[in-house]
Amino acid sequence: TSRSVLLHTGVKCMSQVEPNHGSLTLSSIGFQTETEAENRSKSNKVKSFGSPSENLKSKGKPFDTNEKKKKAFRVVEKQQMEFAPFAAKSFSELGLPHVLIERLEKEGFTVPTEVQSAAVPSILNNRDVIIQSYTGSGKTLAYLLPILSVVGPLRVKGDDGDENGKKLGIEAVIVAPSRELGMQIVREFEKVLGMDNKRVVQQLVGGANRTRQEDALKKNKPAIVVGTPGRIAELSASGKLRTHGCRYLVLDEVDELLSFNFREDMHRILEHVGRRSSADPSSNSAKSERQLIMVSATVPFSVVRAARSWGCDPLLVQAKKIVPLETFSPSEPVTLSRSSPSSAMPSQAAVESLPPALKHYFCVTRLQHKVDVLRRCIHALDAKFVIAFMNHTKQLKDVVFKLEARGMKAVELHGDLGKLARSTTLKKFKNGEVRVLVTNELSARGLDVAECDLVVNLDLPTDSIHYAHRAGRTGRLGRNGTVLTICEEPEVFVVKKLQKQLGIPIASCDFSEGKLLVTEEEKTLSTSTS
Ligand SMILES: Nc1ncnc2c1ncn2[C@@H]1O[C@H](COP(=O)(O)OP(=O)(O)OP(=O)(O)O)[C@@H](O)[C@H]1O
Fold first, then answer.
1. pTM for the whole thing?
2. Distance separating alpha carbons of residues 229 and 223, to the nearest angstrom
3. Rounded CA gap, 372 and 365, in Å?
4. DSSP category for residue 91
5. CA 425 to CA 12: how far, in whole Å?
6. Based on C-alpha coordinates, what's the Rg of the chain?
7. 91 lines ligand 1 (CB under 6 A)
8. Ligand 1, from 114, 116, 137: best to mutate by most atoms within 8 Å of Cβ?
């Protein structure tokens, strides 16, 4: 009873102080830089609520729910008190362990991105979070770094019971909707951990040999596993993967993971990972034992709802603001809308999901000329790494054939290819052996090829969320990128709708004499939309 009263009062308290979804600052969630802490102790006006590194020290103990609830109050209190500059200039400002920062520097990561500056302290402060930020903004490191601060060889030492080499079991489970994305996340972990510590992370993706994965789990005793929902649920059900004592559950591309396809597996994962077997699964205390981190560029309301029911006082963490989820209602946008308030629900999930530097065009042509337009666009922009999206797997081969016939190296990538073929194809594309990757929705999420300079929709995406994820394969981490949608005349209204829903200009263009020409009419439209 006291728990529910506390929660209830907490919510009430937030809604009083937070009528307009006011953003929180880094410092308002309990994080303070050294200078801030010093100034504060001198003036002694504001009480310190504990830096992330202080919180790390208490990480080894079972999580105290009341403590967490108290923090929710502190969030509200502090929010009124101060505002701090948001983006940290270096990783050392984020409260990460020294040895981890050294590893980051060795790998060339020196400055955190905005979303990393916001998310790392929030997670270090034990908060359940939804991380929402545009594609290619570094969301993977945003959750990976705070996890490695607590789990594995780069963590803050002395905060748990494994100093004598005793293994603690699985401490973090990261779930991704595709093998490619899972493997990419593992590589990001390995980059930071270094070759010597590779075994801390184990890949559990579908399509790979299950027995070998089981043997590796037994032999290497990894602290972190990364995998697809099916394989994780399967291993968990067979008792080969024990995750009840897990501290972190990360759902990367969460809106996709919550889709119908993954329903049963995700239910098992949410019910079992980080839940002690003795606990009553329906009680709130069971919910609070693990820290839940949900991640995506697009956050429909279904994700907010899931975070509320599976998490504990979750925060929505974005590049420039942190907002308690309690402040959202189903009718309100999850992100700050660049589009008109009257636009439909999907737009609310997709706004601000795209890198601001992207250029968007569409070109009208007949169906039989689409591949020719694609080729002319590649030449006009002198694009080197091109991803062309289609809706149906069967048609990919034909496009590859047509491009190759005109001397342009291309390759197809889809889910029906075997694991080996998929990874060789991707490797070929990444190392520049082929110029065009012709693919379907499989590659729309998460695929990180930094050099990709052009994305082409040979078929229209089904909605603005799919457009956003496809488009986000280019223009990663502040780079330039172009997105071209090739459509037939009767489909133009769909492009206009996407433009409106995403709040971005999509200009009509054509190709002539090896150049991209933007039509006058659309130039005006772009200016008025922007
Ligand atoms: N602070 C940083 N400094 C330099 N490079 C970084 C930094 N953070 C991330 N990166 C790199 O930026 C690229 C994009 O990061 P990441 O894939 O995490 O983006 P994302 O936001 O998850 O994108 P998506 O929504 O498409 O999955 C990766 O290659 C990553 O290694």
1. 0.80
2. 18
3. 10
4. G
5. 54
6. 24
7. no
8. 137
